[in-house]
């Protein structure tokens, strides 16, 4: 079928909207007509020279829309169903069967490479050349995206479908890291480092959990203001010389029970760990760091550092829960969103990088 998509042909090139040909869905596959696609920080991996992504490529991994076609053997999804697209996983390994799809051993292969698993192109350009379309199992910066039954989540019909895409990755990561992976409970305290879409989603989730101390840390004053409105009890300037000391002061001197780093900045991660109480846990969701240097004595005393992928969520169960919390007015993720036409993807990317927009959503 004919589709239009934002194609990235080189790491330093702008996106270009191109007419392409998308193959029919195969066994277990689903074509989704995109209503909206969130732009996530992880999409910038495509800008890394020599990175893991095969080029040319269609990026985008926070798509939402309506099922347009289903392949052989697909059950639980039908043409016309409203859906949110999330990350892909194999579904058969022990980790997936233990409801930890974010830790699937095949996660890099199924999500990060973007190339077809069998080597057969599913999208071709006007000259018949291949364009890779398996970024996070979807490549949703397009009018249509090809997903699988593993990463296409049916949702209710009475919600603004074009805004739901970010629930598939960034918002899910922040919220589930708090509610599932860290298990924040009523009365707990948490410090969230980085007030982008992931961090602000974590702030909202901490409020849902009943945390009594919610500290947001960022360099952008407007994002700190928004963090206060969304539930942060305290905000800190990320340029502070001793963030760990400030966090300990806020928590009464002992240190805070939970920290979540979304920045992947080594000095910030070190501060996040140093601000914990002795039984505290720091979750790491930031992408891009090569190594962290931590005080071994802090860990020896009992502090824990854990890597988190997608909040340890199962998208098929967690995405509907976030939607219900939004309907109740308890999780206003839509306040993070600014919409752009798909044709303005380069402006959306520039606004996100400059911090002008928390979560761009592209509308085909």
TrEMBL record:
Q: Which InterPro entries match?
A: ADH-like_C, ADH-like_N, ADH_Zn_CS, ER, GroES-like_sf, NAD(P)-bd_dom_sf
What PROSITE patterns has UniProt attached to this entry?
A: ADH_ZINC
Domain spans labelled Enoyl reductase (ER): 10-362
Q: Listed GO molecular functions?
A: oxidoreductase activity; zinc ion binding
So which residues are the signal peptide here? none
**Which Pfam families does the record associate with it?**
ADH_N, ADH_zinc_N
Sorted alphabetically, the keyword list is:
Metal-binding, Oxidoreductase, Zinc
Give the required cofactors. Zn(2+)
Give the family, as the similarity comment puts it.
Belongs to the zinc-containing alcohol dehydrogenase family.
The name this protein goes by in its record: NAD(P)-dependent alcohol dehydrogenase
Q: Which organism is it from?
A: Actinomadura rubrisoli
